[in-house]
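Q: What structure does this chain adopt?
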Amino acid sequence: MPTLIDPQAVVAQIKDWGRGLGFQQVGVADTDLAKAEAHLWGWLARGYHGEMAFMARHGSKRTRPSELVPGTLSVISVRMDYRPEPEVQMRKQLADPAAAFISRYALGRDYHKVLRQRLQRLAQRLTETIGPFGYRVFVDSAPVMEKPLAAKAGLGWIGKHSNLIHPRAGSWFFLGEIYTDLPLPPDQPIPDHCGRCSRCLQACPTGAIVAPYQVDARRCVSYLTIELKGAIPEDLRPLLGNRIFGCDDCQIACPWNRFALNTAEQDFASRHSLDTATLIALFAWDEETFFKYTAGSAIRRIGYERWLRNLAVALGNAQPVDEVRLALKSRLNHPSPLVREHVAWALRRTGG
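A:
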């Protein structure tokens, strides 16, 4: 670990380089996550993580950075804006029962790759300047408390919907971290400005935000359409509407997002017209088409079977017209029992 003659100057340089690499903000946090740890243990004890066993698998390594990466003294936290379109266009797609709504973070290139490459370049630039030091780059890829760390680094506060909010940028951004053994001076956190607002709680289509700052993932559309591997509970299926991969309702409802700007990153622009696609068109994809059009995308992780499962539910919530029923019947004998079960449910819903 090199000796830093002027740690403040080093941090200023890191922030300047970060902006040059396309990050909208860079901050530094210390490693004390005692408050976040208590919140996590309570969340796990309530079973709110559902089938996401990985949330409990690593014990205190998730909340104690120096246990995950020995020697960690500071965390460099970054944010990169990703909103690809104005809010009015999202609302339009969400309101059309024939349209497929995909969470806007997944319309373009997989953010893990984009941020990881930039963070690696940032760490390399620092190495070239001060000499070798210990570090490890993370982008939602290990047991890391990214939002509490970002909050401590001054990138925003954790809102009632559990997303990070910046007062001049809203919440449409990705986070990434560099764990380092450098003793860097931390930034000051931003106070919570949610106040009495409860719009995100009211907007959640499945009532997953069970209390301010408490999300029951078992009811969350993102969990149901992405993390859940089996059947979606029947009582929740009608509430999913046309959401086939994730959900943005709580962000769309948040008044702080009136300050959010569209991203200039072409990597996050919609590919294959996924921002305006119809349910029937996507349901017609065969497996080869699915893997072709989701190459390099976060969507690919759910696989073709769950893709069809989610679309079948959305078609069951669409207008009960002949085109919808015909599309569903085309998958009635699909090899997957999971797909067949959801198709049959959707056909019953649409009178087929």
